[in-house]
Design brief:
By secondary structure, the protein is an alpha+beta fold. It contains 4 helices and 7 strands; from the N terminus they run E-H-H-E-E-E-H-E-H-E-E. Keywords: Transferase.
Length: 161
């Protein structure tokens, strides 16, 4: 698996995964009807960095990295990860998260924070915890899950230095 900066052509290949994840309304608080152009801006232009994981030309997943806040809070970064359905359970999210931590350290960030990990996403929570992240807060009923209704979201944090 190669993890490289995303290109516009890579995003075209990633778009079906992005759209499927957002439309499922199980993990991301993005508009399920988001357009391709708005998704590209949100995932590729707004963040400081965006990377894609590929193997044999197939996009397995992607992540973005950006400051979690501005000014005095810009030493903490935020990331988002998406993995293609057919690539789940193969270590892609782990590889992306480890890569993002290296990139964050290189960019000078002192910590990484996930602002809204949906509590029903137990696989992701377990992975993030295995990589050193801790739940530092919970927002009751912070997410409208497509199948389970209102569920909590967790704020997860890890010091990088």
């Amino acid at each position: 698996m190669q993890i490289t900066p995303i290109t516009a052509d890579n995003f075209v290949l990633f778009w079906p995964t992005f759209k499927a994840v957002v439309q499922a309304r199980e993990t991301y608080a993005f508009d399920p009807d988001i357009s391709f152009d708005d998704a590209y801006a949100l995932w590729c232009e707004l963040p400081q960095f965006t990377y894609v994981a590929k193997e044999d030309g197939v996009v397995l997943g992607s992540y973005y990295l950006k400051p979690n806040a501005a000014g005095p809070g810009d030493h903490v970064c935020n990331c988002g990860y998406m993995v293609a359905p057919e690539a789940r359970g193969k270590g892609v999210a782990r590889a992306l998260c480890l890569h993002s931590q290296d990139q964050a350290i290189e960019a000078g960030y002192l910590a990484m924070q996930f602002n809204a990990v949906v509590s029903t996403n137990e696989t992701a929570i377990g992975l993030w915890q295995s990589l050193g992240f801790a739940i530092i807060g919970t927002v009751p009923n912070g997410y409208r899950h497509a199948r389970q209704g209102l569920v909590d979201t967790h704020i997860m944090h890890k010091a990088l230095r």
